[in-house]
## 1
Amino acid sequence: MKSMNAIRDRLLWIIIGLEVAVLVVILTLAIVHPHKAAAPAPAAVQTTTPQQQFNAPVIEPVLFAKGLASATSIVATGTPGDKSLFVTERQGFIRTLDNKGVVSGPVLDITPKVLDNGEMGLLGLAFHPKFKDNHYFYAYYINRDKKTVVARYTMDPATNTAKASTEKVLLTLQQVYGNHKGGQLQFGPDGYLYIGIGDGGSAGDPDNHGQDTHTWFGKILRIDVDHGDPYSVPSTNPFARSTDTSVKPEIWAMGLRNPWRFSFDSKTKDLYIADVGQDKYEEVDVQKASSKGGENYGWRCYEATHSYNAAGCKGADQYVMPMLEYAHDNKRCSITGGYVYRGSAEPALVGKYLYGDYCTGEIFYASVQNGAWTQTLGIDTDNAISTFGQDNSGELYYADVANGNIYHLTDSAN
């Protein structure tokens, strides 16, 4: 019996020794030959409610104005001391809201030019950084010939209105389908005009526009409206020096499905892009202020971080994955991008990025906690949120495209 125990003990030590040897080999192989990385994923995103956070803001919309029709953008002039907000209506009007929320106008009427149909119409507005001096503003619309038009207008300071006859067209783009038009206009911290154009429509980007540098579809463009006629291309654009003359030098970023909406953080100068997904996921992309442009956000190869149509696509590491995403759970369907709050009235919101879902009326805010992005459901409204806006003080607003109301976002916990 004693000899049998000795044999058993020896066999046990042999087995342990073999297991250790195998473990050493596995670890060595893992170090010398690491596995190829999978598609880069966004920072971990956790959806919470304010009740799960200490001293968390509680979003409360306050009615600010009513009586609008199909509002598509809310914009301030950027002029210090100017409390006015301007709202574009899809059919082709621009109207003014004063500090009491009263609708006046129209400031501009281009309804005879505009194709008001579904996702088409007057979609975007931006004021020149020197608007106080030159009175220039810019509009993005789809015309009766189904072309995207970006045009400049001149405001009459005596009447605070503009005539359609002051229009100077900067660029046009022939559309084919009826959806995914983008429409965002924003002047960046560099003074250049950024233009968001969707992939042109249908489903699944059948023409692969998002990945094609020979078209403006599925891109954010960057142009210099202060030089050239009607504009010039900044020499620092990522494709400005391409030897392929058919590549569009205006392209700043690509791989987008329908950027609705994008905005710059007024403090960090980072660019936040809310890109509407196809069937399953919505995403927010962030381009750092230090970026030299040229980011490819992956569409149609990826829908958010998930492979969608890999035909002709590159390796996953060639695409920039979103900061955060959310799935089409609980009837969510289409993201509406907002702003990073930099106002003073709601201190608990400072530094948080606010955005919503068009279908559910939910408004979220996102922030970094312990190195990871956390998305918090601020409030679940019954609004069809078509756009967010920011006034010259950094306070935030949003529009309900269905009921014609504009709401001011507040923190009821403040």
## 2
Amino acid sequence: MRIFKSFLTVAAFLVTGLFAANSLAELKDYDVMTETYPPYNFKQSGQLKGIAVEMLLAASQKGELGLSRDDIRLLPWARGYQNVQEQPGSMLFSTTRTESREDLFRWAGPITETSVALIARKGADLSFENQSDYASPTIAVVRDDVAESLVRDKGAQDNNLDVTSRPEPAMRKLAAGRVDAWAYEANVAFWLLNSEDYDTDNYEVVDVLSESELFYAFHKDTPDKVVDSLQDALDALSEKERDKILDQYL
């Protein structure tokens, strides 16, 4: 009887070890993508940094997931967003979790809270109280960014949207007065303005489009064990560990 119990114990250990190894191998081999979206993810001096990057690496270390900074690819948002929908074995961050996106991906997180807003130059005298207000001013958006879908839902049309592939051109158009407003994540927008030496006191949030949370988004066919391995590792991070990461960038 003791021999049989020992055999079961060893077998259970081997199965558990094999499961962990498979999870590790599959997650490590995923195409992990991000974009320039400071302070959440960005490249500085040739190295990827940011809240979401450090959170992912901390979780990887905590859960022994095997991911490293070098495993993360930096892409334009629209390309990464298309890849993660079409390419099994892929993950994209930082992705705002919304109702319209819910069934498109598998989710791990949250990373942190996010606020998507309309930013304008102070004194622009813009008002957003009804649907027609969103169809009048020229609004810069990044293609396939959550802000694009949010302003379209509010009433913006093709003819008053200025669509770019990256946030920097949208920001510069706002600064030059070529658009009336810029729809983007508020922290990111003001970070970018400051990084290019624009006086942020000259800009303000004129409308909050959405308050949500940022997540890591996996291709919709990702196995549970892969998503769960990251979710469990994120859940294992203490509040102190999370706050330490947030304090570096906010």
## 3
Amino acid sequence: MGKVVWITGCTRGLGRAWAEGLAARGWTVAGGGRGSSQLAELQGAFSAPHFFGALDVSQEASALAWVQEALERTGAPDLLLNNAALLNQPAPLWKVSEAEFSQVIDVNLKGVQRMIRLVVPSLIARGHGVVVNLSSGWGRSTSPEVAPYCATKFAIEGLSQALAQELPPGLASIALNPGVIDTDMLRSAWGEGAASYPSTEEWAKVAVPFVETLSASENGQSLTVS
């Protein structure tokens, strides 16, 4: 079967680019997301042993069901890409509603911990595996009106480094800043200004080979696709 990658948030943006790129390079992909039509498109394009199923990382039952099915379909992953994330509607922090703030936390931070909790035991049992938690430039610096997003990505940096200290030899936890890419998420913050940055297709030409090389030797590092 070759190497196996699991990707959250695979229906659009960076997650989809990774799914398509890694599948094309011989990886078996298990992808999860909330877009049913996009999941059907991916499953139609990449048949078994690839697996694409509904996954809401903010919900325990959804995450547990997806992980159980992915384990049956592909076995434990060599690489887990915790990619799913939300960006708040840009606004000063005091104007962000409690509901929106909670939603960003539930997906970007609690969702990552949930996937780690459900997946890492299978990596430990096998003795190897790399967990990549998507950070951001906004996890290492800040901008106005995206404070909830910044808060979660700064937290991902700390979470990833602490996890790295806990993992046994053979495993790795890495915080990865993918760079600035022209995605729907970036356009929601920057509008047409996002068009001055690389498309997901252009980005994937670098990002896909980059993640293929990650190993236990990078445990605890904060890396950037460049």
